[in-house]
Amino acid sequence: MDRGDVHRRSLMTKLVLGVLTCNSALAVYRSWGDPASVGFVASAYAALLLLLHLLRRFERARPGDDDRGRAKAAVWALSTLLTAMFASRVAPVMPPMVGVAVWVMVVATAGAGLWSMFR
């Protein structure tokens, strides 16, 4: 990997994190009177930051390393948590059968992720 690619990736990462931070700050500002919504935005933001950190740790670890396995398990757990968090906000505002379909997709996604990561 040449230095130009690393610099471009670093710049893109900073840009994406900046947009995510601004979006989260605006969401907190707009829902300031609702503690549950503020908590949801703050916890989703923290989980996304932790997920990005763990993904970087996973990518840098050598194959077969114990740290790589722990990072992989944490990535799966956090991505499953985020999927369930977002579904818990979407499913209640949908018609009942669509809400059930949302949760079925969450379970299928979590199961497929578990199978593909640890097979």
Order of helices and strands: HHHH
Low-confidence stretches: none
Please count the helical segments.
Answer: 4
Main sheet specs: none
Structural class: mainly alpha
- The pLDDT mean sits at 89
Whole-number total of structural domains: 1
- Dominant shape: flat
Provide the gyration radius in Å.
17 Å
What is the percent of helical residues? over 70%
- First and last CA, distance: 30 Å
Portion of residues in beta strands equals under 5%
Number of strands: 0
InterPro entries: DUF6490
Keywords: Membrane, Transmembrane, Transmembrane helix
Transmembrane segments: 37-55, 75-94, 100-118
Pfam families: DUF6490 (PF20100)
Q: Any overview of this molecule?
A:
With 119 residues, this protein is mostly helical. The chain is 86% helix and 0% strand. It has four helices and no strands. 3% of the residues are buried.
